[in-house]
Write the structure tokens for this entry.
Amino acid sequence: MAFQKPKGTEDYYPEDMAIKNSIFASLRATALRYSYKEVSTPAFETLSLLTKKEGDEIKQQIFTLEKRSKEEFGLKFDLTVPITRMFIENQKTLAKPVKWFSLDRMWRYEQPQKGRAREFYQLSIELFGADSIYADAEIISLAIDCLLDLGLTEKDFYLKLNNRNLLQALLLEIIPKNKLESAIRIIDKKSKISEKEFEEELKKEGIDNIDKINSLLKKDINEIKTTNSNVKKALDDINQLLALLEDKKKFIKFDLSTARGLAYYTGIVFEVFDSNNKYRSILGGGRYDNLVEMFQGQKTAATGFGLGYATLLLLLREKNLLPGSENYVDFYIAPVSEKEIKEALKIASKLRKKYSAATDIMARNLGNQFKYANKIKAKKVIVIGENELKSGKLTVKDMDSGKEEKVELKDLI
Amino acid sequence: MAFQKPKGTEDYYPEDMAIKNSIFASLRATALRYSYKEVSTPAFETLSLLTKKEGDEIKQQIFTLEKRSKEEFGLKFDLTVPITRMFIENQKTLAKPVKWFSLDRMWRYEQPQKGRAREFYQLSIELFGADSIYADAEIISLAIDCLLDLGLTEKDFYLKLNNRNLLQALLLEIIPKNKLESAIRIIDKKSKISEKEFEEELKKEGIDNIDKINSLLKKDINEIKTTNSNVKKALDDINQLLALLEDKKKFIKFDLSTARGLAYYTGIVFEVFDSNNKYRSILGGGRYDNLVEMFQGQKTAATGFGLGYATLLLLLREKNLLPGSENYVDFYIAPVSEKEIKEALKIASKLRKKYSAATDIMARNLGNQFKYANKIKAKKVIVIGENELKSGKLTVKDMDSGKEEKVELKDLI
């Protein structure tokens, strides 16, 4: 075959598209019920914006556009960066807190693998201007409700919760400050590598007291005893958060090793996984109080999360929770011969005021028309012949039950 | 300001986004009622695919991606090309006729101007596998219904209809075959240039009998008398089409000068303009029976149209037909002090089973909370204080009328 779609991208045929539309509609409804409003940003942004947060190393993963003018552009690889730019452009006039969401497509140049493609879709939730723990509670509650509203239950997923300030304060009791960043980076990937690899990576960075780190990361929240005021403050925050999330308790696992690699998180962080840890994380987020300022806005507290469509789809499929694709047609109007096509078109046109309707546009015989009506999942078929038009009495055939019903043409519409 | 969005692109803030969602929902509903199914293709395609139809000159208008592997990619600039590729990949198994639509975003590198940006949205309707005039009638009827369903009327727009075969056959009575293509190209832009420019361009191509061409293009369909069998055949087609579109007659103007520049149209062509000819065309389409084969599929009749969001939006705004943006929140729960925030969160959470609800996550005083509730267009505000929680009796304030109502907490949810 000569022309193919680019590797790592997907065509959505009607069935898959209906599923995506239906899942997006559910996510949209959940966000709207939480009083979040939908926004959208361009597909590409200036390269200076895109590389600002994570530095030049991210450039390798950006689909850059060929330079046509002075400016360099790249396709967006997340939604937080462009939405933050958009927030800053009208920061002064927007009523705070600003609660936004976006359901959009983005791109990353990397080797395609299961649940991760070069073109992918995410729901992004962004909350600007609220630095309280209530804001974190709202975001986490919204994240869990997004999944519950799709039919998932506590048997299917759990949320790992941590406070980066707590992890940092506790680590600083064991390791020196200049090792902190690399320690967090390695801890963040602990669940993806072996114990041995974990130890080796730490050693490579000159971090030795690995036993202490290991025993620290296993601690439950009640096991952390301290007189250190930084630890205490971080512990208070997370305990207050857990109290606010009482009704979502069964979904939440405190986990000191959850760090969310990216350097820009500043407080509460969380990640959702399927209960069997079979897939990549379904969603992840947290607080990033420095990002707006980093992008040259006025310093603003912010929190949010990103939910990937690809992993969500894998889990929903496994749990038999894919929304029934409403890929049917209410009526198919079958003209007996070409003579009746014009009348069939008229009837279809009238039915379309209320229903979906298809009719013959191929001048096919009745047998082939019924085959086609079956293929497009027509619920009811109405045959239009000379007699029907003369008498004004139509036969409506239910394609599931096979039952036929006589209806007056004038009553049908 | 340091970071700005790229020129010719748009941020959709909540108000504009709600309008776009609402217009898209209307277009989607119309297409579904006609039994068309939604599909979607990647943002970028191989450059060889994108340039196949219109040749290398289109390359200037394509946002190409920087080369990362052997393949060259560009952002799509229309939907017909990628959807045709997608059709061909499963051509053998799809039930014919295939009726698809797509509502998507695309990109063109050109100077931004009113109603035409570098990033833009279109509805594309594609019908594969039906070569009858009934298919053309269905597509045109669907195009008109898309606009009627948005509230536009025959006072607001009209559809120019032509048959390229008719234009060609009539031109060949006046000019030699080797001048045909350039003549059609120039005729196609007649309405955009002056009479003098029109004549000059024709002369430059060595076409002299301009008076004959001018008088030909003014002819109404009844004024075309002929014994030429090609003209007759093309005339029959369009007369049959007009008969099928009887109920849409008032929208349709026969216009021999409508050619749809692109070389790939093969029969019926049409374009919709606002009645004052103030804007660019709102939609345009026609039959393209050679395209599937040109893209190395098995020869398949095809027809369809593309409707641009930008021009549609300009017209709907002028006619005061923008859908009311449903940018409100059902309930705002106002805790009197920080002590009541936890209860307020619980009540909001329960209300969200059915309604949209916001609550205070900033620990603000009541005055500031009411200001915020106003800004986010909360319909009703419920104040939660110590007394309310003790008595279980809440006051629900309607923000429009100012009326207050006493409600039992347990009855609210």
